[in-house]
Amino acid sequence: MNIADIINPANLVMEKTKVMNDTPMHYCPGCSHGVVHKLIGEIIEEMDIQDKTIGIAPVGCAVFAYQYLDIDWQQAAHGRAPALATAVKRLLPDRYVFTYQGDGDLAAIGTAETIHAANRGENITIIFINNGIYGMTGGQMAPTTLQGMKSSTSPTGRDIPRNGFPLNITNLLAQLEGTCYVTRQSVHTVASVRKCKKAIQKGFENSMLNKGTSVIEIVSTCSSGWKMTPADSNDWMVENMFPAYPMGDLKNI
Amino acid sequence: MSTEKKHNTEEVRLMKGNEAIAHAAIRCGCDGYFGYPITPQSEIMETLMDLEPWNTTGMVVLQAESETASINMVYGAAGCGKKAMTSSSSPGVSLMQEGISYMVGAELPCVIVNVMRGGPGLGTIQPSQADYFQTVKGGGHGDYKLITLAPASVQEMADFMVKSFDLAFKYRTPVMILADGIIGQMMEKVVLPPFTPRWTEEEIREQTPWATLGKTPDRKPNVINSLRLEAADMEKLNLVLQSRYREIEQKEVLFEEFECADADYIIVAFGITARICQKTVELARQKGIKAGLIRPITLYPFPTAQIKEYADKVKGMISVEMSAGQMIEDVRLAVNGKVPVEFYGRMGGIVPSPEEVLEALENKLIG
Ligand SMILES: Cc1ncc(C[n+]2csc(CCOP(=O)(O)OP(=O)(O)O)c2C)c(N)n1
Ligand code: SF4
Ligand SMILES: [Mg+2]
Predict the structure, then answer these.
(1) Is A245 in the pocket of ligand 2 (CB under 6 A)?
(2) B contact residues 24-63, partner A, Cβ 8 Å cutoff
(3) Are residues B78 and B142 in the same domain?
(4) How much is the pLDDT for B3?
(5) Same domain, yes or no, for B157 and B302?
(6) Domains by residue range for chain A, with CATH
(7) Residue B363 in 3-state DSSP?
(8) What percentage of chain A has pLDDT greater than the value 90?
(9) Ranges in chain B, pLDDT < 50
(10) Nearest CB to A71: which of B34, B64, B221?
(11) Are strands B255-258 and B291-296 parallel, antiparallel or unpaired?
(12) Rounded Cα distance, B135 and B146, in Å
């Protein structure tokens, strides 16, 4: 049997979503970004909203998100995605507008833009990849880096007196009147991927119901930044990240 | 107040420069204003909020959480092919520099109004022209130029609002209206521009095929982006920008002359300072001194060729500015050493009088 016999339409059981193109991804093996991209692509295809969706890409490892999903994108300056999304949604209220942001982007440099967009209740969907580190710049400490967690700028581990506490920004966003749906998800198992997909879809649907901002945090791994194998990263995430950033809905109205 | 009353059709009005900006923005079909309050230009957003254009033209007016957010909202709106603008004063415009650089890199049109006040730092709320360098020489990171229009009257505040959007879309670039606290605050008669409807989505698709309105099956995704990882690609974008700047320098120079034909001495001044120097020219001529005035209206592109021409005819020039001397560098580049180019300026929000400018001209150029 050769490869042509195997890759043959008769054997097709599952197809990649058409919203995702064939550009090879630059993400490291085991990285959560790729999985979440796929979920977004699937949701856009299933909801049939490719022509009505505008994504706002961050600065961070997902800066190239626009290379992988065949939708219209705007690439924002570091942290400013929610400001862009605000204007896009206000001027095109019948479009699905989402931001895709890392923890440095959303919870450090873009804290003000994030909180104020959510507080205004902009009808946008915020997808927040919390891997507890600055992946793109080589593994520096992030606002969400755990106490004691090592990074290239906290080589002996995050020290609270020196570095402050890990910022649980999703809890904070859940307290704002402007948010309608705030949830924390992961994509490390088949079951969690399925749940996460439902959550993202709900976020997209909410944006047309004039209910306010939806925030989907995805607690993620960064095997390169964490300096672990992908499998070890998953275990470490469950053991260490989940207690600090517990799974589940924080708000759902 | 009824909408009819608010959008008065009476064409000659008496209002502040800041108010004229707001009225003209609505009238020229602006889609979105995003701003953060700062003196001496808060009347722009206040007037817009009072006029409630969302009920008439559908224009979005939003008070942002900062100037950083404002300019990035403008980026988002402009990325959708919308006519978007912001306004601020010096400290706020400093905060916008990152966003302006990104908009240049992403080739996005917009209008930014800077009603300048004295700096550096928190400075003063009094008028100033000290942001010339920031505006004309770059401001943010990277190689770029901002088309800069310097109004000298309330009428020009209104007129340049319309013109700025035209230029911004023609060249896919941010355009700056560089005013100052006096122009923003003073009241004058103004004829407002006629109402032009906002672009429909169909018109946007036609005028700005790059806009992110949602990917339709007939085209590839549109991506608004300033990132070019490959140096060669980055240079290519820079070459596009630079060739656009050469075209702008050829086609878009605007300036005004006053009593220059027989002048021995030329004052170069922009904005409100030019209005003051016009009086200086009159005073000088009463004393038998043949003075003239060149008022650059576009600070970039600068009227280099025109000033250069006068360098062959006059005995000297003096650049008069409400700063420590910024535009003078461009005047000197144009004159290229042919005649002396002197400077007179006041800083920190002090407005020079026509008499003190005349005294400076006599002392520095005539001796
Ligand atoms: C204004 C500005 N400051 C700093 C940077 C450098 N920078 C690029 S990505 C990044 C951190 C990204 O981390 P995160 O948002 O957590 O995304 P991740 O790569 O982990 O997905 C930084 C600091 C930048 N591009 N712009
Ligand atoms: S550095 Fe981390 S976040 Fe970036 S692609 Fe690699 S694993 Fe993913
Ligand atoms: Mg991160």
Answers:
(1) no
(2) 31-32, 34, 60, 62
(3) yes
(4) 43
(5) no
(6) 26-252 (3.40.50.970)
(7) helix
(8) 94
(9) 1-6, 8
(10) B221
(11) antiparallel
(12) 7
